[in-house]
Amino acid sequence: MQSALYSYQDSQAFKIIFKIILIAFVSLAFCDTAKSETQLTKKDKLKAAYLLNFTRFIEWPNNTPEIPPAPIRICVEDSPEFLLFFNQMSANRKSGAQQQTVKAYLSSTVDGCELLYVKESNKDRFEKIKAGLSENTVIVSDSDKVSFPGTSITFYEKNKNLRFEIDLQQLNAANVSASSELLKLARIK
Amino acid sequence: MITSKHRNKIGFFYKHLIAVVAINILPLFIMSGFLYSNFIADYKANLLEAMDSEINLLVATSRSALLFNDQQSAAVLLSSLENYTSTRYAQIYDANMELFAEYKRPGQLVDMPAEQLNTGLMIIGQTIYLSKVISLGEENLGFIVISANTKALNIQKQRYLLIIGVALLASLILAYLLNWTLQRRLTSPISELISLVGYVAKNERYHKRLNNERDDEIGDLILGVNTMLDTIETHEMQLYNRAHYDELTQLPNRHLLMERLSHSIKVADRNKSEIALLFLDLDRFKIINDSLGHRIGDELLLEVAGKLVKVLRTSDSVSRWGGDEFVMLLEDIKSTEDIDIIVEKIITELAKPTIVSGHRLHVSTSVGIARFPQNGKDCQSLLKHADISMYHAKEQGVGKYCYFNSSMLNKSVQRLSMEMHVHKAFEDSDFFLVYQPQVSSNGEKLIGFEALIRWKLNGAFVPPNKFLQIIEDVGLMHQLSLWVLEEACTQNMRWQQAGFAPVKISINLPPSFIIQPQCLQNIHSVLNDTGLAPEYLEIELTENTFLGSRLIAGPILQSLKDLGISIAIDDFGTGYSCMSYLQDLPIGTLKIDGSFVKGLGRSQANEGIVRSIITLGKSLDMQIVAECVETEKQLAILKKMDCDIIQGYLFSKPLTAENAERYLASRQVKKGLNRAS
Questions:
Q1: In terms of domains, do A148 and A55 share one?
Q2: Closest alpha carbon within chain A to B70
Q3: Are residues A12 and A91 in the same domain?
Q4: Which residues of B touch A181 (CB under 8 A)?
Q5: Is the dihedral of CA B637, B643, B648, B652 positive or negative?
Q6: Which residues of B fall within a CB distance of 8 Å from A99?
Q7: For residue range B218-264, what is the model confidence (pLDDT) as tens digits?
Q8: Which of A31, B461, B481, B486 is in the most buried spot, having the most CB atoms within 10 Å?
Q9: Mutation test of the interface with chain A: which of B59, B62, B67, choosing the one with the most A Cβ atoms within 10 A?
């Protein structure tokens, strides 16, 4: 009886310690998020959400089927805050018919990705970045003020609302298909 | 509201028609209700399914708009609902319950806050709310709500109701017309039957029948009704005949006579013509009926009825009033001679002998006649006056007729009064006997006495011929005869007990007493009770006793003779009978009627009759008694004719019992012969 009582008390103590640690982690995470959020504009956040949503309406060819399916990789340049925000946002969210997870990476850290988000500031390095991409990579341009070769989706603003343009030719060239739901919202190039 | 009284007034066939139509229509109602419910349910399900499909489509197509915050696109999507006329409004809310996009049909208001909406279907009044969550994977993007009114459903309901109502009304009319036509064809014989029964019930006439060419249950019913009517008609006829015709003679009875008489009086009154009512009563029928039995009496009545019918004219009618009474109605009388001719014809016809079951019967009739309008203006008075005049005819003797006159009414009242006095005298024992001596023609020997009945009313003697008929009519004759028999025998026995030499006592007995079955027993009882020896009793009968009842009277008289009682024929020579009975019956004495005796010495013819009677009696070894002998001359003639016994005032008037006893004493003392013998 006594040993059982002790083991119960030990178990309770362990649970309390675990909870404290969990709370601390969550607090840290929120602190990080808060920190990253503070550095990102609302527009950036919206673009991050759009990028995530693009993955839900675009299907990439499944050249190497894996079980569980490999995550959809989003490559971004020189923006750790954006990266952090995106990953926090996409955590626990799945996209596509295969219910793939979506994760953002620095383009320099991965070899090939399904979607590349480039900004005007990346113009100089674009050719270098593009060289590391696969043929199925969908290039999303941050703005219509600059033109990146091979860009499939381009953000632009209309009536202070963020909108996007889809270049169907480029999408076809990338051998990906976009859902009609996505297409009906986009300005088609 | 239809009350039970009104319901009962509705005809059976109409009720039946309504019931059949109602039964026909009821399944239609049920089917229509079922179809209506199904139609409405289907329509409602389709409506909801369409709404569901639409909302599902919107859910699927609005996700991207929500994800990309494209309110304009969402609004465009919602505006597609404009084509759905039942849609009131549609809204898309984001995950934060903030209104994202909206479509409102002009004039419609949003009446359901997002907070109050439940996912799924809500129907409040005539409004439908359908909401669904918009999600992508497991992510809740928001929700959409579509509100629609049920106007279309209501319109559809009304349309279905109209269609079903029209169909039901048409079915009802068709069912009614078809059933009405069919029922008319099927029930027309029953309607005819009902009309017939109604006619019979209303008019109480049973002569109508229905044609029956059917071979089914209705045919059986018609046959049954026709048969029933046959039976009723036959019974009606029988009842009518029983009510209006005499069962024995088949002549009209008094009921029908009164109808005819009443009708004849009206016709005669209108035409100023005359009618005569003849009241006939058969003479001596009672004697025949009592002596020969009712069967013979009935047969005789039948014969009489036949004779009466035979003498009638076509315009006249005869009816049996009851018993031996008949009434004849003679119409369109021109003069009294017409009546005389018919009445005399009747009397002559009835006076002819009638052979009934081997009996040769002689009846006659007395006829009373009353005429319209002289003797009465109505049935009752005419009948009453004819009846009264018939009694007057009877008083005149048999086979007479008499016309009514108003003085008869007084006599009738007097007769009624006399009947009452007779009853009272009988109760008070006011009748008494007197005794008239019968003496041998040489005057030397007292043979006996004839007992004669007397009655004093208010101190005055009433002649026997005035009250005896009344006593007969009121039915007291038998009792009176028995009393006379007892009284006379008792008195004779009293004289014998007083020491006088026995003499005969003669008693008059009516035919009705002689022919009655207890005659012998009654006489025997009286003799036993009084102790009188039969040889001292003599019974006097009139010739009428043998006219209709010779076969019955014969054995009775023979028995009386065997008993030792003497039989005498009273008033001999006045009757109409055949004299052969003098030879056949045990008659010991003939009493010559006083009318012949009174005529002695006045006419040779009268003396011849008396002599013939005496010769006849003597030849038959009978004693001869002469009545009403009042003079020595009459006595001398009678003695010369060898008459045996004399009775009359010459020797003595009728005496009271005391005087008779004194007379008896004087005769026996004076002569001393009777006592010695």
A1: yes
A2: A185
A3: no
A4: 60-61, 63-64
A5: positive
A6: 137
A7: 888 889 999 999 999 999 888 888 889 998 999 999 899 999 999 99
A8: B481
A9: B67
Any CB–CB contact under 8 A between A27 and chain B?
A: no
What topology does CATH give the domain B254-405?
A: Alpha-Beta Plaits (3.30.70)
pTM of the model: 0.45
ipTM over 0.90: no
Closest-CA residue in chain B for A96? Answer: B137
Q: Round to whole Å and give the CA distance between B480 and B501.
A: 28
Q: Using DSSP, state whether B438 is helix, strand or coil.
A: strand
Question: Residue A18 belongs to what domain range?
Answer: 1-39
- 3-class secondary structure, B475: coil
Instruction: Name the superfamily (CATH) of residues B429-672.
Output: EAL domain (3.20.20.450)
Which chain A residue's Cα is nearest to B64? A181
Q: Are residues A75 and A15 in the same domain?
A: no
Q: Which among A46, A162, A181 has CB closest to B64? A: A181
| Chain segment B572-593, per-residue pLDDT in tens | 877 655 677 787 888 999 999 8
Chain B's closest residue to A184, CA to CA, is: B73
Domain total of chain A: 2
- What are the sequence ranges of the domains in chain B? 12-157, 205-239, 254-405, 429-672
Cβ <8 Å between B64 and A179: yes
Does A45 contact chain B (CB < 8 Å)?
Answer: no
Whether the per-residue pLDDT at A9 is higher than 60: the answer is: no
Average pLDDT over residues B32-45: 88
Class of domain B12-157: alpha beta
A3 — pLDDT class (breaks 50, 70, 90): very low
